[in-house]
Automatic annotation (TrEMBL), chain A:
Subcellular location: Cell membrane
Keyword Cytoplasm (UniProt): no
UniProt keyword annotations, A-Z: Cell membrane, Membrane, Sugar transport, Transmembrane, Transmembrane helix, Transport
Name used for this protein in its record: Multiple sugar transport system permease protein
Xref: PROSITE patterns: ABC_TM1
Family according to the record: Belongs to the binding-protein-dependent transport system permease family.
Protein source organism: Nocardiopsis mwathae
Keyword ATP-binding included in the entry's annotation: no
Length: 280, 282
């Protein structure tokens, strides 16, 4: 009870802080409320208001192959592919950077760090130009590879941190016991790296899933568009009439990202703080 | 060395390649359609001269700076710091609830964030509903104040990052320093100003740089909300780049705008590498 003299003012301060936090939270929540309400409201408008009656019609209206299923399958293909390539390529690249004394290691790590800061937006026009000349436009594969490349700088950066955290003594002990390099990698390093690499993969998935600009520029066939771009066509097409369906679609498109984010948020807030991880 | 090959191959072809192509294309009259598309010619510094004489470019550069300062530097970092400071030492339930809502806005894909803000600010939207309820005048915010609208949306979208970054930084500040200052009779504001902020300087610097890099490239949010309009009143550099290169089909000139953006981002990124240098690279 050292501070008993000050406690009345402290209590008042605490009430004030909680009040301010409540207001800020409400302000952050307000824009999102519309999406959730309108998705279930039988007669939705642009205004967040208590729904007159609830319905699931908007969901059944958008849950068609053309509107949701194909775009989501495209997203899974493009973003899942990008995540796999990012994980594989950055783990491979990180291994020598973490284990060997290389003369060019420092410059490489500087370039990687520098690249984590370069915005994808700024290179999309040149990428379009280059893809047009190379005949790579409107291809899900090249879009996926480009997204993987854009995620590589931070992928390599985190992967190196992950591998740095695995003591090399473990491998050396295995070699003494007669294991080959490949065996020690497969049986020792890989299992220990799995949690960290899962973070890289899921994080890439979250960022690419939410990325609109890259597929918007690189793809144009309607049946190849991922959910991020399809949703825009949806908005454009109905010119703000079918709010309920737009809201339901937005909700369906957002939920996987939220789920994936929740899956990694613990790991992210802990060991894997990094720079440049939020671009996209 | 062999394991580095896939990553290097990807980075060289999809990252370094386009950047080098940018430099070349900005010196040509490359176009999507018409005679310049078939016969691309070297035009020297013509694109750069045009850029420097183009009022649209200066308008965009100015809007980008305003957008950057208002939404990134001031909005996101100040609000993020305030949230982190207020949430420090609060109960787990409060941190979960407030933090969850703020991070929720961050996790929502940019396109959805754009829609949600259109719905919020439209003539028939929620904000006007609230204003009507208190008898205040309403307006079509996306038309009357497009830049303010995208600034607010970007603050909403991005504040979580600086909040999390500052929270992590605050957690590393030893409590006895704050206790000592309090014992010396410092009030909460004085403790923050004289003890916490100086110790947080590095976190502030790196967060500010990352937020700046993030904000300077925002395209989707603005494109969905205003598409750069009405007129050119929210046409930041990424939107101008997109319009010139892919809407108007002038790849060469659009690439020059991209190069300007790349130079700005590259300088910021170099600053960022410098700020991190001492400990991070081993």
């Amino acid at each position: 009870m050292r501070r008993s003299v000050a406690s009345p003012s402290r209590a008042a301060g605490s009430v004030l802080v909680h009040g301010v936090l409540a207001v800020l939270a409400a302000v952050f929540l307000l824009p999102l409320v519309w999406m959730v309400v309108a998705a279930f409201d039988a007669e939705p408008s642009l205004r967040a208001a208590p729904p007159a009656s609830l319905t699931l019609d908007h969901f059944s209206a958008v849950l068609t192959p053309e509107t949701v299923l194909v775009p989501v399958a495209n997203s899974v293909l493009i973003c899942g592919g990008a995540a796999l390539v990012t994980v594989a390529a950055s783990l491979l690249a990180a291994y020598p950077l973490s284990r060997y004394t290389l003369r060019f290691k420092r410059p490489v790590m500087y370039v990687v760090l520098f690249a984590t800061g370069l915005p994808i937006t700024a290179i999309m026009v040149p990428v379009y130009g280059l893809f047009a000349q190379a005949g790579l436009l409107d291809s899900r594969l090249s879009t996926s590879l480009f997204l993987a490349t854009a995620s590589l700088p931070y992928g390599i950066w985190i992967s190196k941190n992950v591998l740095d955290g695995i003591p090399i003594e473990l491998e050396e002990a295995a070699w003494v016991d007669g294991a080959s390099v490949w065996q020690s990698l497969r049986l020792l390093v890989l299992p220990l790296a799995v949690p960290g690499m899962a973070v890289v993969g899921i994080f890439t998935l979250v960022l690419t899933w939410g990325n609109f600009f890259v597929p918007f520029i690189l793809l144009n066939s309607a049946d190849r568009l991922p959910a991020a771009v399809k949703i825009y066509a949806f908005f454009d097409q109905y010119g703000g009439v079918r709010y309920g369906e737009l809201a339901a679609y937005s909700l369906l498109y957002t939920l996987p990202v939220v789920a994936l984010y929740l899956a990694v948020s613990r790991a992210l807030s802990g060991r894997f703080g990094l720079g440049g991880a939020m671009k996209g | 060395m062999l394991p580095l090959v896939p990553a290097l191959l990807l980075l060289l072809s999809f990252f370094a390649g386009p950047i080098l192509w940018t430099v070349w294309a900005s010196l040509t009259n490359a176009a999507l359609t018409g005679s310049a598309a078939a016969h691309t010619e070297f035009v020297g510094t013509a694109n750069f001269q045009r850029l420097l004489a183009d009022p649209a470019f200066f308008n965009s550069a100015l809007l980008t700076v305003v957008f950057l300062v208002a939404s990134g530097v001031v909005g996101q970092t100040v609000l993020g710091l305030v949230l982190a400071l207020l949430m420090q030492n609060r109960g787990a339930a409060v941190r979960m609830a407030v933090g969850g809502v703020v991070v929720g806005a961050w996790v929502v894909p940019e396109v959805v964030a754009g829609f949600v803000w259109v719905a919020f600010l439209e003539r028939e939207g929620t904000l006007n509903g609230l204003l009507e309820a208190v008898g205040a005048p309403t307006q079509n915010w996306l038309y009357t104040a497009p830049l303010l609208a995208v600034v607010l949306a970007n603050v909403w979208k991005g504040t979580a990052f600086s909040m999390m970054s500052y929270s992590a930084g605050l957690a590393e500040i030893p409590t006895d320093l704050k206790e000592a200052a309090r014992a010396d009779g410092a009030g909460p504001v004085q403790v923050v100003w004289h003890v916490v902020l100086p110790l947080l300087r590095r976190t502030v610097a790196t967060t500010l740089l990352l937020v700046t890099l993030q904000t300077v490239q925002v395209f989707t949010l603005i494109y969905v909300m205003t598409a750069g309009g009405p007129g050119d009143r929210s046409m930041t550099l990424p939107l101008l780049m997109y319009r010139e290169a892919l809407r108007f089909g002038e790849l060469g000139y659009g690439t020059t705008v991209a190069l300007a953006l790349l130079v700005i981002a590259g300088s910021l990124s170099a600053l960022y590498v410098r700020a991190l240098r001492p400990e991070e690279v081993r």
